[in-house]
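Sample entry (200 residues):
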Amino acid sequence: MKLLYDLFPVILFFASFKYAEKNPEQAADWASQLLGATPASQAPILLATLVVMLATLAQIGWTYLRHGRVEKMLWISLALVTGLGSLTLIFHNENFIKWKPTVLYWVMAGGMLTATFLKKNAIRLMLQDKLELPEPAWLRLNLAWIAFLTGMGLLNLYVAFNYSTDTWVNFKLFGGMGLLLLFLVAQGVYLSRYIKEETP
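Predicted structure, serialized as C-alpha coordinates:
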Protein backbone atom coordinates (compact mmCIF):
# COMPACT_ATOMS: atom_id res chain seq x y z
CA MET A 1 0.00 0.00 0.00
CA LYS A 2 2.81 2.43 0.83
CA LEU A 3 4.36 1.85 -2.59
CA LEU A 4 1.06 2.72 -4.29
CA TYR A 5 0.71 5.79 -2.06
CA ASP A 6 4.24 6.94 -2.92
CA LEU A 7 3.51 6.40 -6.62
CA PHE A 8 0.13 8.17 -6.46
CA PRO A 9 1.30 11.39 -8.23
CA VAL A 10 3.23 9.41 -10.86
CA ILE A 11 0.23 7.17 -11.59
CA LEU A 12 -2.02 10.21 -12.02
CA PHE A 13 0.63 11.85 -14.23
CA PHE A 14 0.67 8.73 -16.43
CA ALA A 15 -3.12 8.38 -16.54
CA SER A 16 -3.77 12.02 -17.37
CA PHE A 17 -1.11 12.01 -20.09
CA LYS A 18 -2.58 8.88 -21.71
CA TYR A 19 -6.13 10.26 -21.54
CA ALA A 20 -5.08 13.57 -23.07
CA GLU A 21 -3.09 11.77 -25.75
CA LYS A 22 -6.16 9.75 -26.77
CA ASN A 23 -8.39 12.85 -26.75
CA PRO A 24 -6.17 15.52 -28.34
CA GLU A 25 -8.88 18.04 -29.25
CA GLN A 26 -10.46 17.98 -25.80
CA ALA A 27 -7.01 18.10 -24.18
CA ALA A 28 -5.97 21.09 -26.31
CA ASP A 29 -9.19 22.88 -25.40
CA TRP A 30 -8.67 22.25 -21.65
CA ALA A 31 -5.02 23.26 -21.80
CA SER A 32 -5.83 26.43 -23.74
CA GLN A 33 -8.47 27.43 -21.17
CA LEU A 34 -6.11 26.80 -18.25
CA LEU A 35 -2.73 27.76 -19.69
CA GLY A 36 -3.32 29.91 -22.74
CA ALA A 37 -3.19 28.90 -26.39
CA THR A 38 -1.78 25.37 -26.52
CA PRO A 39 -1.10 23.18 -29.59
CA ALA A 40 -2.66 19.72 -29.41
CA SER A 41 0.82 18.16 -29.49
CA GLN A 42 1.79 19.89 -26.23
CA ALA A 43 -1.49 19.51 -24.36
CA PRO A 44 -0.93 15.98 -22.93
CA ILE A 45 2.37 16.75 -21.19
CA LEU A 46 1.20 20.17 -19.98
CA LEU A 47 -2.02 18.78 -18.49
CA ALA A 48 -0.16 15.83 -16.96
CA THR A 49 2.33 18.26 -15.41
CA LEU A 50 -0.49 20.30 -13.87
CA VAL A 51 -2.07 17.10 -12.53
CA VAL A 52 1.16 15.84 -10.95
CA MET A 53 1.72 19.21 -9.27
CA LEU A 54 -1.77 19.15 -7.75
CA ALA A 55 -1.46 15.46 -6.81
CA THR A 56 1.84 16.06 -5.01
CA LEU A 57 0.32 18.97 -3.10
CA ALA A 58 -2.64 16.77 -2.13
CA GLN A 59 -0.27 13.99 -1.05
CA ILE A 60 1.67 16.39 1.17
CA GLY A 61 -1.54 17.75 2.70
CA TRP A 62 -2.95 14.28 3.38
CA THR A 63 0.32 13.08 4.90
CA TYR A 64 0.46 16.08 7.23
CA LEU A 65 -3.15 15.64 8.33
CA ARG A 66 -2.64 11.92 8.98
CA HIS A 67 0.77 11.99 10.66
CA GLY A 68 1.39 15.58 11.70
CA ARG A 69 4.66 15.66 9.81
CA VAL A 70 6.02 15.19 6.29
CA GLU A 71 9.24 13.36 5.34
CA LYS A 72 12.05 15.54 4.00
CA MET A 73 12.10 13.74 0.63
CA LEU A 74 8.43 14.54 0.06
CA TRP A 75 9.16 18.24 0.61
CA ILE A 76 12.08 18.03 -1.83
CA SER A 77 9.87 16.26 -4.37
CA LEU A 78 7.20 18.95 -3.95
CA ALA A 79 9.75 21.74 -4.44
CA LEU A 80 11.08 20.11 -7.61
CA VAL A 81 7.71 19.29 -9.14
CA THR A 82 6.27 22.74 -8.44
CA GLY A 83 9.43 24.56 -9.53
CA LEU A 84 10.17 22.61 -12.70
CA GLY A 85 6.47 22.04 -13.36
CA SER A 86 5.77 25.77 -13.20
CA LEU A 87 8.56 26.45 -15.69
CA THR A 88 7.09 23.77 -17.97
CA LEU A 89 3.64 25.40 -17.84
CA ILE A 90 4.87 28.98 -18.18
CA PHE A 91 7.16 28.36 -21.14
CA HIS A 92 5.20 25.42 -22.62
CA ASN A 93 8.47 23.49 -22.57
CA GLU A 94 8.37 19.85 -21.44
CA ASN A 95 12.15 19.68 -20.97
CA PHE A 96 11.86 21.22 -17.51
CA ILE A 97 9.59 18.51 -16.06
CA LYS A 98 11.71 15.80 -17.70
CA TRP A 99 14.60 16.87 -15.48
CA LYS A 100 12.60 16.34 -12.27
CA PRO A 101 13.29 12.58 -11.73
CA THR A 102 16.99 13.05 -12.43
CA VAL A 103 17.36 15.95 -10.01
CA LEU A 104 15.48 13.99 -7.31
CA TYR A 105 17.65 10.88 -7.83
CA TRP A 106 20.82 12.96 -7.71
CA VAL A 107 19.74 14.91 -4.62
CA MET A 108 19.19 11.59 -2.84
CA ALA A 109 22.49 10.16 -4.07
CA GLY A 110 24.31 13.37 -3.19
CA GLY A 111 22.85 13.40 0.30
CA MET A 112 23.90 9.79 0.87
CA LEU A 113 27.38 10.44 -0.50
CA THR A 114 27.81 13.52 1.70
CA ALA A 115 26.70 11.52 4.73
CA THR A 116 29.27 8.84 3.85
CA PHE A 117 32.07 11.41 3.87
CA LEU A 118 30.79 12.55 7.27
CA LYS A 119 31.14 8.96 8.52
CA LYS A 120 27.39 8.40 8.51
CA ASN A 121 25.63 5.63 6.61
CA ALA A 122 22.14 6.66 5.45
CA ILE A 123 21.01 3.11 4.67
CA ARG A 124 22.19 1.88 8.05
CA LEU A 125 20.27 4.66 9.80
CA MET A 126 17.10 3.57 8.00
CA LEU A 127 17.48 -0.19 8.42
CA GLN A 128 19.57 -0.83 11.53
CA ASP A 129 16.46 -1.56 13.62
CA LYS A 130 15.49 -4.33 11.18
CA LEU A 131 18.86 -5.76 10.16
CA GLU A 132 22.16 -6.60 11.78
CA LEU A 133 25.00 -6.41 9.28
CA PRO A 134 28.78 -6.17 9.55
CA GLU A 135 30.18 -2.72 8.81
CA PRO A 136 31.60 -3.64 5.36
CA ALA A 137 28.16 -4.89 4.29
CA TRP A 138 26.51 -1.63 5.37
CA LEU A 139 29.10 0.32 3.38
CA ARG A 140 28.61 -1.82 0.25
CA LEU A 141 24.83 -1.45 0.55
CA ASN A 142 25.12 2.31 0.89
CA LEU A 143 27.44 2.59 -2.12
CA ALA A 144 25.13 0.35 -4.15
CA TRP A 145 22.23 2.73 -3.51
CA ILE A 146 24.35 5.74 -4.46
CA ALA A 147 25.39 4.04 -7.71
CA PHE A 148 21.81 2.96 -8.48
CA LEU A 149 20.34 6.42 -7.93
CA THR A 150 23.11 8.06 -9.96
CA GLY A 151 22.56 5.59 -12.79
CA MET A 152 18.78 6.10 -12.71
CA GLY A 153 19.31 9.84 -13.04
CA LEU A 154 21.49 9.35 -16.11
CA LEU A 155 19.09 6.81 -17.62
CA ASN A 156 16.16 9.20 -17.18
CA LEU A 157 18.02 11.90 -19.12
CA TYR A 158 18.95 9.45 -21.86
CA VAL A 159 15.35 8.32 -22.36
CA ALA A 160 13.93 11.84 -21.96
CA PHE A 161 16.11 13.44 -24.63
CA ASN A 162 16.59 10.56 -27.08
CA TYR A 163 13.04 9.18 -27.31
CA SER A 164 9.53 10.53 -27.65
CA THR A 165 7.67 12.07 -24.74
CA ASP A 166 5.25 9.12 -24.83
CA THR A 167 8.16 6.68 -24.40
CA TRP A 168 9.55 8.77 -21.54
CA VAL A 169 6.17 8.79 -19.75
CA ASN A 170 5.99 5.00 -20.05
CA PHE A 171 9.54 4.67 -18.77
CA LYS A 172 8.88 7.04 -15.87
CA LEU A 173 6.26 4.67 -14.45
CA PHE A 174 7.02 1.17 -15.71
CA GLY A 175 10.75 1.40 -16.41
CA GLY A 176 11.60 3.20 -13.20
CA MET A 177 9.44 0.93 -11.06
CA GLY A 178 10.71 -2.20 -12.80
CA LEU A 179 14.35 -1.29 -12.33
CA LEU A 180 13.74 -0.42 -8.68
CA LEU A 181 12.10 -3.81 -8.08
CA LEU A 182 15.01 -5.60 -9.78
CA PHE A 183 17.46 -3.66 -7.63
CA LEU A 184 15.52 -4.53 -4.47
CA VAL A 185 15.48 -8.21 -5.43
CA ALA A 186 19.25 -8.14 -5.99
CA GLN A 187 19.64 -6.37 -2.66
CA GLY A 188 17.50 -9.05 -0.99
CA VAL A 189 19.66 -11.80 -2.46
CA TYR A 190 22.77 -10.04 -1.16
CA LEU A 191 21.30 -9.54 2.30
CA SER A 192 20.01 -13.12 2.56
CA ARG A 193 23.49 -14.36 3.47
CA TYR A 194 23.34 -12.27 6.64
CA ILE A 195 19.86 -13.27 7.74
CA LYS A 196 19.97 -16.23 10.08
CA GLU A 197 17.05 -18.62 10.10
CA GLU A 198 15.31 -18.88 13.44
CA THR A 199 15.57 -22.30 15.00
CA PRO A 200 12.30 -23.75 16.38
